[in-house]
Amino acid sequence: MVNRKAQVGLVFAAVLLFGSLAWAQADTPKVTPVAPPAAGVKAQNPTPAPPGQPQVVIQATPPAQAKPQAAAPAQDPPVMVLAATEFDAGTVNKGDLVKHDFLVENKGKGTLEITHVQPACGCTVTEFDKQIAPGKTGKITATLSTANFSGPIQKTISVTTNDLKMSSFQLNIKATVKAILNVEPSEYQQFGLVFKGQPLEKVFNIKSQDGSPFEITQINADDPALKYELKMGADKKSAEFKVQLPAEHAVGPISGRFTLATTHPKVPSLTIAVYGTIREPLTVYPTELVYSGLSKAFVNEHAEDVSLNKTVTISFEQAADLEIKKVTSSLSFVEATQTAITPNQRYSIQVKIKPPVKEGDFNGTITIDTNKKSIVIPVRGKIF
User: Fold this and answer.
1) Which terminus of the chain has fewer CB atoms gathered within 10 Å of its CB, N or C?
2) 360-370 sheet: strands from edge to edge
3) For the whole model, what pTM was predicted?
């Protein structure tokens, strides 16, 4: 009986609980969800709703976005057209000026700018129009001096512009230079490497190519130590010019340039030159011996150490007839001996410090007497 009453009580309690939940859900007002405002749009503050009524949010209308502006049109480019990039002047006389205009047309709608013109050598001079308007034609003028050339020549001119398709290019000017007064074998000759005391001679044969007679009225020489001799031909249409290198010429570079004034109507002057180098046939290396960082104790206790040794090499680069007669030292503690590397041509002089030594600076010489001349080599150092 008791169980029956308990079951009825549980059912009654469940009914009451379900009814309470249903009433609470029916009494809650419904609210429509509102999406968050779009980026950059500020939501309006909501107006408070009366008690028991749902809150209503009013969303502001987003502002109209500005339309993107169209990009500015690109500047109209120039379009360069060259009539030719090369000019061949053909055969010209030596000393003539070769002048040519390279025509440059602008077929574009923008201004053509020639920003830089650079000849490859100083023999070419250029002038040019820096700006060429659309539809117009300008020019690059090249002038080539042939005074220092003979035979076929070609010179280049580098050009830069603001035309993207022709921003950098080269022009060429060519010619074959014919000397009116021809010099054989050449206007410039080399003595090459010459040893002092060795006399040499170079001969220049000058001939009129157009048959006009001429005379050489004056000769100016850059190197007064060089000797020269002129002999005119009997018909006055040729000449022989000799340049002599005397045995007593000083050691060093040879740069002999001769300017010959002529009476030829087309060649007022003619330049002839010789080049080379003179050096002593007897060479010595090194030319000075220096000892540093030597202690008295070390020298006295290590007499055979290699750091106490120096070597001088003597060579004679002409005939194998060099003789070393005597080698002497002015310092009592410095010893010098000789050894033949190549007999009568190359020798080694061994220089060595021998104990006992004293502290302090020292200065002396090694004298090498040969059948060519005496050689003096300074020797200095410090012992502490």
Assistant:
1) N
2) 289-294, 374-383, 360-370, 324-329
3) 0.59
